[in-house]
Amino acid sequence: MADELRTIDATNSGIKYAPDVISTIAGLAATDCAGVAGMSGGLVGGIAELLGRKNLTKGVKAEVGTEQAALDLFIIVSFGQNIPAICREVQSAVVRAVESMTDLKVVEVNVYVQGIDFEKDPAEELRVH
To answer: Rounded to two decimals, what is the model's pTM?
Structure first.
């Protein structure tokens, strides 16, 4: 056995990723994109729930196989931003992050805009009317 050279197939390395691991990577990549106010935890009373950074996995649905991953991201964008451009950037950032941190090929990233964040400018709130 010592004389026998064994190779490892890099595409089937025996590593399995939990969907929550991939969801966390994707959620962090998405929230780092300019114009993304946060991840959405779904609709509560007709209003999209804005999640904090501790609950990123709730805003991402990941289907993870042994070689590929497909992701659905539910985001809230900041008011006044170019939504299609933000969605394209989120898709690119998620693919880069997941593929660079794992050996998985990302085959699909669907971005669902669940709401718009109308957070007021702090200077606007200080003005006396």
So the answer is: 0.77
